[in-house]
Write a structure and sequence with these properties.
Chain A has an eight-stranded mixed beta sheet with strand order 1-4-3-2-5-6-8-7, with helices on both faces. The first copy, chain A, has seven helices and eight strands, in the order E-H-H-E-H-E-H-E-H-E-H-E-H-E-E. The first copy, chain A, is globular, with a radius of gyration of 17 Å. Chain A is an alpha/beta fold and 231 residues long.
């Protein structure tokens, strides 16, 4: 288990869009320039990780050595959701090398925190480096180990959960995950279209739960949004 | 301008899913049965309006007589978003016959309010009937007339805006719409894929605005999510 603390990092303006004149500041001042510098560091790192992921995953035959990152549009979507619901505490299951973690961390406020669990130490080390390079360590708590144990080190109530790990664990963990999700909170599950068969039992469990409402969104590999009714 | 008030209506559990055993209650009691009855009324009405929309729009050649409703998955997605961001005040531009309004109203709490603007009186009358049939009149304020005038009757700050109207008005209205959206609020724009060319100038305006972040979601006709940065 590694707890990281580092310097504060400024919130982003659509770091991933990178398309055209929209990136220009309307009002130029010191804060905006600082933010742009942070934008640029994050943007470069995200692009670097996307290239690394494509290159590696195309040739790597061992599944545990593939990064299996979310797509960029999924990252943009996740970040927007985290901001729009005003989440300050996020739980991510499946850090990999931190690509998705960067998007989540970019979306929480300065005082926010992303708790992210990864069972592979090598990937967690890469993630730590990437999170530090982005200057986001103050917003991220990394937990390394089996998710069933690591979960007990996560705050009792989280605002958003992002689920992108070993899918055979989703159903066994469903009770514990939704118990940690605040009433009125949102769980997002990746691969809901690309690997629909592997999460079918988990989806059936959600459907049978009176307090949960779903929407399947065809962004990236398919994002299943699950809302837990407010009390 | 018509202000509607009616009996309270209970919040929904995914009214649109309607698929399988998941709809069963886990704990049966009076409230759950009341909610299920409301679910059933809304569900039947939504299905009826979907059939009407398909039938009418397939043969109707006059654009202003077509309903041009959002798709069901868009309705489910919108309702989930409204709940997840905890919106109590929603502004809809383009009521049509109220199909989307029903989804939005199903997602706000009892004390919440959807303000919806429609310039065609005939459609607004149909919407009023549908909203009353669903028992949702207490949650909906209908405004009938030109959106440029009607906007002044909308609360100064709204949590969510759903934009599904004459697209040539989006850019001229952009300033006023985003001024009414709370900091930290969400605007959703329909037809962002199906009629991408018609909103291109509006999208460029959003891109040029430092306080706005976008994500394009390929649900239904394409939903553009625009987040206004918290202050």
């Amino acid at each position: 288990m590694a707890l990281q603390r580092c310097t504060a990092w400024h919130s982003l303006k659509h770091p991933g869009s990178g398309n055209g004149p929209g990136k220009d500041t309307v009002t130029e001042h010191r804060d905006a320039r600082t933010m742009q510098a942070s934008d640029s560091i994050l943007e470069n790192l995200l692009s670097e990780l996307e290239a690394l992921g494509s290159r590696n995953d195309a040739v790597q035959t061992q599944k545990d050595k593939r990064y299996l990152n979310i797509t960029r549009d999924t990252g943009e979507f996740l970040a927007l959701l985290v901001k729009a619901v005003g989440a300050t505490t996020v739980l991510e299951i499946g850090t990999s090398n931190g690509y998705s973690t960067l998007w989540l961390a970019s979306a929480v406020p300065d005082e926010g925190q992303v708790h992210t669990i990864e069972h592979q130490e090598a990937k967690a080390r890469e993630a730590r480096d990437n999170i530090e390079r982005a200057g986001m360590a103050s917003r991220v708590t990394q937990l390394v180990g089996d998710v069933r144990q690591a979960l007990s080190a996560v705050p009792e109530t989280v605002d958003v959960i992002f689920l992108d790990a070993d899918r055979s664990l989703y159903l066994p963990l469903a009770d514990r995950l939704f118990a940690r999700l605040k009433a009125g909170g949102l769980l997002v599950c990746d691969n809901a279209i690309s690997l629909e068969r592997e999460i079918r039992d988990f989806v059936a469990w959600i459907e049978a739960n009176e307090a949960l409402t779903m929407s399947l969104v065809p962004v990236g590999k398919g994002e299943l949004l699950v809302y837990k009714e407010a009390e």
